[in-house]
Amino acid sequence: MHKDHPISALTFPDALEHWQVSDAALARAYARTGDRGRALLKSSIAMLYESLEAGRPTDHKCVKRFRSGLVQSREYSPRPWYMLVLGSEVTSGPQVLAAVMPAVVRRIPLVMVLRPRSRAGWAPEVLTALELCGVEHVYSPPRGEMKHYLEFLTATCGRGGLACLGLSPFWDRVASLAQTLRCGPALWLEPPAALGVWTEPGLEWDSTAMRFAHPRATLTAYGPGDDMGLTRAGLSGADGMEGFRAAGYTAVYAPAGRRPASARVRLGPGLEAFWDWPEDFAELLERKRIIYSKD
Asked: Whole-prediction pTM value?
């Protein structure tokens, strides 16, 4: 971070601040999300705080001493800013929470969310998720203005971290912009298009909560249990387990012992509205220095 411009005193130029989402819009979204939706989001925030190990030091150091007398020091400090850029198709509050909470928990000085303006308005659940986890810098500028935010942050504060939650064409544009501006590392978070759900007698799932977490994904039920109104896959091979494993899902709802090898995320009963990205956010959140010396 540039010492002359501490993040705590950072003010965006009026031309950029103009596109901040208003308090009135946040209030409307909060009301439209409803008690049930807000409860699901609050539960996800609590679980993410726990799983992301809130309370760790913002700066930390790892020292290794080798037999030869060589000393290796790795020093880690938080990046000055983190931006989450959303595609217009993103409507999942839990997915957005999982994309922004690593920066919140790591206590990045400036956490902001930017969604280029489009005909489709913000999903209420997304704005409510951001308000509940304390992200105040939320903007909706014209698409062509996005680069000006990145230019300002990089010039004023140094290199930060950029995550993009959206489909491939949108990510391609964001990645190209990040590379051109050299604003810092960028990470793509691709919303899951399809999730498999294992069902069996005695196993209860909340399909409404699943749809809350993944409103645009196809949810397909496998196994001999109730399909809960989801898309139903045909039964075959141990009552559908062969098809479940062969489908190649990267994320599934399944109890212990039922996770396909392809799945990078498995969510058990009671976690239908919870989401966590399997991607590594470390480079986006931390700057690393490596120092070598001899005893």
From this structure: 0.90
